[in-house]
Write a structure and sequence with these properties.
With 404 residues, the chain is an alpha/beta fold. It has two domains: 14-44 and 320-403, Alpha-Beta Complex (Aspartate Aminotransferase, domain 1); 65-303, 3-Layer(aba) Sandwich (Aspartate Aminotransferase, domain 2), CATH 3.40.640. It contains 14 helices and 13 strands. It has helices at residues 14-22, 47-59, 72-83, 106-121, 136-143, 163-170, 195-208, 230-238, 269-286, 293-302, 305-336, 346-350, 362-372, 391-403, and strands at residues 29-30, 99-105, 126-131, 147-152, 154-155, 160-161, 178-182, 211-216, 242-247, 259-265, 355-357, 374-375, 381-383. The strands form four sheets. It has a seven-stranded mixed beta sheet with strand order 2-10-9-8-7-3-4, with helices on both faces. It has a two-stranded parallel sheet with strand order 1-12. The protein has a two-stranded antiparallel sheet with strand order 5-6. Strand 3 (126-131), helix 5 (136-143) and strand 4 (147-152) form a beta-alpha-beta unit. Helix 4 (106-121) packs parallel to helix 5. The structure holds (2S)-2-hydroxybutanedioic acid (LMR). Residues 13, 33-34, 134, 187 line the site of (2S)-2-hydroxybutanedioic acid (LMR).
Length: 404
């Protein structure tokens, strides 16, 4: 069976971490995978997480299975973060609402359950993805057997949202198609729609009868937990049905614990219950029921006012540090006389979250890695959250050398 198998290409993002680890250069810099680092270049475990883990060690009564859709408190805490406590959509089906949340193994697990559920319930739906998007998006939806199309997102000439081209493409969406949008901190561009643009997107999707799927992996990394949910809430207002895949990898720093959720919103309670039962069957044949640890950490923090306040403060520190690194990266490039954008480097500071599209070509990316041990994604995506005061000068020298 395995004698004639050809090797698969390495993953465009995670594969680079493997190559980075194997690189003996002591000055190597990893700006590939979307992981936050502090000023010392370390990825911290948040104090609130440590406290919640200690609490679980002392109080978790047993290790028996969770239900197929996970911990109910976690589901409620998730909907409160997404929609706001007291919002109609924060009520689940058991409380008469039209939302159903599934605790999932990371945002990726949530996306795969969403994809398999769509493939089971609506196999002829096309899934529309932004161009560019996270490379795992097309892989996940295609693996589930769904057709995938793209809509323009980035205007490379201005480094802004290509809103007109996007609207023109999405005007071709059919009723029942699914349009994937990044809730905030678009990966890889860092460009988010303005309030007006969100409103126009929501109206367009409602008009087309298309269902928004919001991938929300960076809540709290743009402006704040509430503000970052703005687009999602506008979509929820405009469209009767909604799919949200969210992740706590980045905002709780729980990467390896695989903590995420899928929230399905239907038109009414009966429809939501039916969809919930179908998604339960999908989960059961995928991984049966979700891993508990990381999700219980999250729900414990969110049920404790002091730990929640500590988490908010730590999240603000992470967000502010990334913003400072954006400024320093821009200023240092300016000092070196290197312009990455068309015109100036201002776009680096205007974008949100961990990523920016540097505009570096594939050849320049390869030279950065081969000649300077600087690892960025082949598309030119750079993880600003991996930059520090120490590595930015080295990085900018390297970029100056390959573009010059
Ligand atoms: C990224 O885009 O770097 C992150 O979302 C990590 C991943 O799984 O690719």
């Amino acid at each position: 069976m395995f004698a004639h198998v050809q090797p698969a290409p390495p993953d465009p993002i995670i594969g680079l971490t493997e190559a980075y680890k194997a690189d003996p250069n002591p000055n190597k810099i990893n700006l590939a995978v979307g992981v936050y680092k502090d000023a010392e270049g370390k990825t911290p475990t948040l104090a609130a997480v440590r406290a919640a883990e200690q609490w679980l060690t002392d109080h978790e009564p047993n290790k028996v299975y969770l239900g197929i859709d996970g911990d109910a408190g976690y589901g409620q805490a998730t909907r409160d973060l997404l929609f706001g406590p007291g919002h109609e959509l924060a009520r689940d089906t058991a409380a008469g609402g039209r939302s159903a949340t599934f605790q999932a193994p990371g945002g990726t697990g949530a996306l795969r359950v969403a994809a398999d559920t769509l493939a089971a319930l609506s196999p002829n739906s096309t899934v529309w993805l932004s161009d560019p998007t996270w490379p795992n998006h097309p892989a996940i939806f295609k693996a589930a057997g769904l057709a995938v199309k793209t809509y323009p997102y980035l205007d490379p000439a201005t480094n802004t949202l290509a809103d007109e081209a996007m609207a023109a493409a999405l005007a071709d969406a059919s009723p029942g198609d699914v349009v994937l949008l990044h809730g905030c901190c678009h990966n890889p561009t860092g460009i988010d729609p303005s309030t007006e643009q969100w409103g126009a997107i929501a109206a367009l999707l409602n008009d087309r009868g298309a269902v928004p799927l919001i991938d929300f992996a960076y809540q709290g990394f743009a402006t704040g937990l509430e503000d970052d949910a703005h687009g999602l809430r506008l979509l929820a207002e405009a469209c009767g049905e909604l799919i949200v895949c969210n992740s706590y990898s980045k905002n709780f720093g729980l990467y390896r614990e695989r903590v995420g959720a899928l929230t399905l919103v239907a038109g009414d309670n009966d429809a939501a219950k039916a969809v919930q039962s179908q998604a339960k069957a999908v989960v059961r044949r995928n991984y049966s029921n979700p891993p508990a640890h990381g999700a219980l950490v999250v729900s414990h923090i969110l049920s404790d006012a002091e730990l929640t306040a500590q988490w908010h403060a730590d999240l603000a520190l992470m967000r502010e540090r990334v913003a400072r690194m954006r400024k320093l990266f821009r200023d240092t490039l300016d000092e070196r006389g290197v312009t990455l954008g068309h015109g100036d480097n201002a776009f680096i500071q205007q974008q949100n979250g961990m990523f920016t599209m540097s505009g570096l070509t594939r050849e320049q990316v390869d030279r950065l890695r081969a000649e300077h041990a600087v690892y960025i994604v082949g598309s030119g995506r750079v993880n600003v959250a991996g930059m520090t005061e120490q590595n930015i000068p080295v990085l900018c020298d390297a970029i100056a050398a390959v573009v010059g």
